[in-house]
Specification:
By secondary structure, the chain is of the alpha/beta class. It has six helices and 14 strands. The longest helix is centred in the C-terminal third of the chain and has 12 residues.
């Protein structure tokens, strides 16, 4: 079983690879860091990290020849399990609204917009540990404690058009999207690779998930 961790110059690759390796220790899972569309097409699972601005990450992904086509074929048409992390999750949206309107992959309808806490004393970016508050049952949350916390670093959030694709929120001056998903797609705004035991449990759940 091979998991492709996409390297397109905009992700926390080393930390993500290390955490995925720890989450799958003792199994037959192979973690491959790759920018090769052919390896993506042959992978059993796909993980797309992302750090930085939406437009920059989308440009980076588009700049890898054949990568978006490979992702569309492998994830959408062939139904392989997909995990987007932070901006990697946001890229699943229809568009990002940071310094203009920038098209995303449009896998889950919705826009990425600035976080606007009700409390003006709360700082942006939202940075640090906050609870994961599931609003829907999903296999990636199995075994988590009710007060499980994860690590967030972001100024924007995904606002899905269909409430059914919202999997979890966190409270930062109001509900902020923490996870989205549908079918074989799932994404976390928080960084599981930086979220210690909680993050490893979520990554392990993803690696054993059969949509």
């Amino acid at each position: 079983m091979r998991t492709a961790l996409i390297d397109y110059g905009s992700g926390n690759i080393a930390s993500a690879a290390k955490a995925l390796g720890r989450a799958t220790a003792g199994s037959r899972q192979e973690i491959v860091v790759t920018a090769d569309p052919a390896l993506v097409k042959s992978a059993d699972r796909i993980v797309l990290p992302g750090v930085g601005a939406f437009a920059d990450c989308m440009r980076g992904l588009s700049a890898v020849p054949g990568m978006i086509d490979a992702l569309n074929e492998t994830v959408l048409r062939n139904g392989r399990p997909f995990l987007g992390i932070c901006v990697g999750m946001q890229l699943m949206a229809t568009a990002g609204r940071e310094f203009g309107i920038h098209p995303g992959l449009n896998w889950i309808e919705g826009d990425v917009v600035p976080i606007k806490p009700a409390d003006p004393a709360l700082k942006i970016p939202h940075m640090g540990w906050n609870e994961i508050e599931p609003v829907a049952d999903h296999p990636i949350f199995v075994g988590l404690e009710p007060d499980a916390n994860a690590y967030y670093v972001h100024s924007f959030e995904m606002k899905p058009a269909d409430r059914a694709t919202l999997l979890a929120t966190t409270n930062y001056g109001g509900a902020v999207t923490a996870a989205i998903g549908r079918d074989n797609l799932v994404g976390t705004q928080f960084h599981p690779e930086k979220s210690q035991a909680v993050g490893l449990k979520i990554l392990s759940n993803f690696m054993h998930w059969t949509p």
